[in-house]
Each structure stands twice: as C-alpha cells, then as structure tokens.
Design a protein that fits this description.
Elements: E1 2-4, E2 10-12, E3 24-25, E4 31-32, H1 50-66, H2 71-82, E5 89-96, H3 97-100, E6 112-118, E7 121-128, E8 131-137, E9 143-147, E10 153-156, E11 163-166, E12 173-180, E13 183-187, E14 190-191
Amino acid sequence: MNGMDDSGFPHEELPDGDLPDGEFAGPDGQFVGPDGEFGGPEEDFGGSGPDEDLLEEQLRRAAAVLDPVPEGLLQLALEAYALHDLDARVAELTFDSLVDALPVRGAPQAPRMLTFQAGELTVDVEVTGDGLIGQLLPPRPARIEVLGGPRTVLPVPVDVLGRFTSDAPPSGPFALRLRTGEDVIVTEWLRA
C-alpha cells in the first residue's frame, strides 16, 4: 500500500514477510531496497515531468526572495556583459558632475555631465530627463549604442562633428558602446 510519511515523501508500506529478498521494512514501515535507500529503486519515481518543473520554479522564486542577488554582484554581471567584446577598451570615467562639480546655490537642478576617456578619445555626455546629449572628441565617425541591461540596446546616430543625441533617458544602469572603425570602446556602467 502506498502512503506519505511526515516529510511528504511517498513510501511503500509492505507487511513483514512479504518483502522480496534483500529488502526490508525500515522504521515506520518504509520499503528499503537492497541498496539501503528508502523508497525502492530510482525508476519507481519516474523521470522529469511537470511536477519537477513546478518545483524548480518554486525554488527559483524562494531563492529570489530569501537569498536575492547582491546589488554589487548584479552590477559586476552587467559590467561583464558589456565587455563581452573581448577586444573592447574601457573608457574610464574622468568627470561626473554629481561627484566632481561644485554645487551652485539657487541654481535649478543642472543636468548630469559625464566625461569618459579612452586613449586619445574623449566622450562628453549630458544626462537629462529628456535623454542623452554628447560628443566624441576628436570628432570621428562612430556607431554608438546605449546599453541598459543584458538585452537592451538602443542605437544612437552620430553626426560628422561627433555629436549624438538620444531621446530615451536611461532608466537604470547604463553604459555606452562605441564602434569606431576597428575599435570597440565601452564606458563604465553608471546609474542614471
């Protein structure tokens, strides 16, 4: 007769004397196979199925609530993804108006100004509530993409003077990926 024990695991209860050779009833009358494992041979439990998929999803949800990914680790993962181009150079943040600029009393909230440096290339970016405005110095043809996560890429056109604009303001961590001829340059990730 099949039943459930206190742990919720199924077990097979067999009366004494009706057990096959090499098998015995353990404590609580559970069927114990010749390998000493409770519950009998592994094939008795079936293969993977919808119950295992449901269990996996429940475990993922529980882990997300009970043991969420630390913010710093998530940031590192985003930065690592941005560098999936192995030959990409990192443009270092050399100026951030949130950190480096002197506050002006009575001035309305100024846009955030960022400057990135990669070798001889400078990227100036102004972050506003309306989007991004920037320029490459010295001017050069380039393709710029605004990265907003593992799958969010927004291409931004660049004019002949190296200027670019994006009408979509970043809503979270973001970085810029620049493709200038053979070079690929990725800025550091920042929060908008």
